[in-house]
Amino acid sequence: MRKPIEKPKSVGPATVFINARLIDPASNRDEPGGLLVKDGVIADLGAHLRRNAPEGATVVDCKGNVLAPGLIDAQVFTGEPGYEHRETLKTASHAAAAGGVTTIVVMPDTNPVIDQVALVDFIQRRARDNALVHVHTMAAMTKGLQGEEMTEIGLLKRAGAIAFSNGKSSVVNTRVMRNALSYAKDFGALVVHHTEDPYLSSGAMNSGEVASRLGLSGVSKISETIMLERDVRLVEMTGGRYHAATISCQESLDVVRHAKARKLPVSCGVSINHLTLNENDIGSYRTFFKVRPPLRREEDRAAMVQGIANGDIDIIVSSHDPQDADTKRRPFAEAADGAVGLETLLSAALRLVHSGDITLPAMLKALTINPARLLGLHSGRLAKGAIADLVLFDPGEPWVVNKDLLRSRSKNTPFDEAKMQGRVLKTVVAGETVYEYAGVERT
Amino acid sequence: MTSKSNANALKVFPRRHLLTCEGLSANEINFLLDLADRNADHIRNNGRKRQVLAGRTLINLFFESSTRTQSSFEMAGKRLSADVMNMNVATSSVTKGETLIDTAVTLNAMRPDIIVVRHHAAGAVELLSQKVDCSVINAGDGAHQHPTQALLDALTIRRAKGRVAGLTVAICGDILHSRVARSNINVLNALGARVRIIAPTTLLPSSPERLGCEVFTDMWKGIENVDIVMMLRLQRERMESSYVPSVREFFHFFGLDHEKLARAKPDALVMHPGPMNRGVEIASTIADHSRSVIRDQVEMGVAVRMAVLEALSAHLPGFSEDAP
């Protein structure tokens, strides 16, 4: 592997975070303590640092708030290159930093599509020079995301592509999918797949009573499950590492659970939208709630939450997808899918903790160590020698989302005016503070 | 309307727009039907045009072509002395990529009093109504709603049968794509009728029973003892998308012929929102049969649209019976 393109590590005086509640899902740590950062890495941590600051270190009093590994978001769409008016790597990284996200994986659905070595290089360099957080590139698994010809998986991986995906569309051609899984296996590459049968998913929202009432064509759950079941068969045949990008219903969860029981290299993710919203939120054609897969019924949302609680679902992603007025202020069926989510990711996920559905460590696990392991990253943990990617947050602080204050260049949040409980106070990337809550909303 | 009835309109029908039949109360519907009844009689008695909307501007904004609905609204507006403008979408900037909202904002700046909108996308008319200051009437949005059609159907039934409550109405055909069906289910339920829908499963929406009706996939059973048979138009494109295999097969199982009609009540009425596909969903001889009230529906269309325009005009600022 070539030398990775990354930011220089910060060197200088140490910083010590005292009086924190340290939560590290990787080591099952949840205790009062402190953490020492030096030269961009975690130099020491534990209960002994709770009140004792080493000499010469800058002291940050966490006041009992949670100090956890920075979040890793494995599915972020930006507009760079091609749609910079919606989002750039820079604006996405500012949104990420404000949301406590220290690593983002950007998707290949850009213009041009990230299907060549030079483009992976471009993303990495642009990110190094402009982004506040770590940025990794998910490369296209087929040329132009057309689902017909495999990309140069080996060379792309060597250039730094962290995984391979067909973006927002499924590879319908079974032979191409089989070959991609087989070929990727030789390079130890991970295939991340959006599972939706295009013939069954041309509708505008989840199939059911609400769609019938609104006169919108429906997308049934089977469009997702049928593609997922096919993929699991191909994984069984090829042995390739496979991750279902975002599942949305109980039936898909059953397929994944069954595959895992058979020891297949299969994992899955869920978007924060499908954990916290359901189809009723669409109300009368609110296009900010139009996402892919579509928001499902409340039973399905509850099943997704259960999946996180018991570990059947591996990771939570924001599925951050900036869309502007041009694509969203349209009749529902014609509006684009997608919602921004980086800045609200942690606060929205905390809803599930406050409602008692999942524990804080279980929730953080799906946002830190699990995506780190999936993607082969060394971050996502609080450990001596690990990179100092950290988030400090107050899990109880109430606030109200105002879309106009979002750092993302696009304001299509489904959480506008939503009441949240829990907010990010400080985000640290490789020892550098990239976000600090000033106590009042910026204007 | 006199100023007294104007105040009454505001009280009974306190809406600025007519976008959907969902949530309309029996009171509101009957208020509109009573108004429409009077309009229908007025027209039948060769009454001259009324001055209710004199000096008011009505825009017919049709993104989807429709000869009958558009001319019906135009006629209704003119019978109330409104200045009617038909927006020809084919020559407008809509085809130049302007968004629906841009069009709405542009039209709004011209300060019309009422806009009648038809659009091919569900929810589009409501979206447009959020961006304008005038009253908006939904003349059909995708597969969602077509309120004036359901009202004119209810009026046709009420005039022919003397009531709506307690009647059994079968709506038959392409329910999945039909705004007429959805609107009618709402209005008929509100007025106390029993609604059945009849279609092959491929032309039914999911969870159809939740819409407030009894579901049949066998027309011979569904049509038994009904008071009203309401047929829907089947678009020929549906054959290409594998909803039904052929016209012949569809007509055999779901077309209205004399044999199937014989299973309905002897005095059952036949309705169709038009335009009809003779020989696809309805036998030609039935369309012209004495039990068919299809022509009455067209007549009631103008009367109902006048009533809706009247009711909404009560909300226009500076309303008065006479022109300023």
Describe this structure in words.
The complex is a heterodimer of chains A (443) and B (324). Chain A has 443 residues and is of the alpha/beta class. Chain A is built from 13 helices and 18 strands. In chain A, strands 1, 2, 3, 4, 5, 16, 17 and 18 form an 8-stranded mixed beta sheet that branches. Chain A is globular, with a radius of gyration of 21 Å. Helices cover 28% and strands 24% of the residues of chain A. The longest helix of chain A has 17 residues, at 222-238. Chain B has 324 residues and is α/β, with parallel strands linked by helices. Chain B has helices at residues 3-12, 26-44, 67-79, 100-109, 124-129, 147-161, 179-190, 219-222, 237-240, 247-254, 258-261, 284-287, 294-313; strands at 57-62, 83-88, 114-119, 135-141, 168-172, 194-198, 214-216, 228-231, 269-271. The longest helix of chain B is centred in the last third of the chain and has 20 residues, at 294-313. The mean pLDDT of chain B is 91. The chains are: A alpha/beta (443), B alpha/beta (324).
What topology does this entry show?
The complex is a heterodimer of chains A (443) and B (324).
Chain A: E1 15-24, E2 29-38, E3 41-46, E4 58-61, E5 66-69, E6 71-76, H1 89-98, E7 101-106, H2 117-130, E8 134-140, H3 153-158, E9 161-165, H4 174-186, E10 190-193, E11 205-206, H5 209-214, E12 218-219, H6 222-238, E13 241-244, H7 250-261, E14 266-271, H8 272-276, H9 298-309, E15 315-317, H10 325-328, H11 345-354, H12 360-365, H13 369-375, E16 390-400, E17 419-429, E18 432-436
Parallel strand pairs in A: 1-4, 1-5, 6-7, 7-8, 8-9, 9-10, 10-13, 11-12, 13-14, 14-15
Antiparallel strand pairs in A: 1-2, 2-3, 5-16, 16-17, 17-18
Chain B: H1 3-12, H2 26-44, E1 57-62, H3 67-79, E2 83-88, H4 100-109, E3 114-119, H5 124-129, E4 135-141, H6 147-161, E5 168-172, H7 179-190, E6 194-198, E7 214-216, H8 219-222, E8 228-231, H9 237-240, H10 247-254, H11 258-261, E9 269-271, H12 284-287, H13 294-313
Parallel strand pairs in B: 1-2, 1-3, 3-4, 5-6, 5-8, 6-7, 8-9
Helix pairs in contact in B: 2-6, 2-13, 3-13, 6-7, 6-13
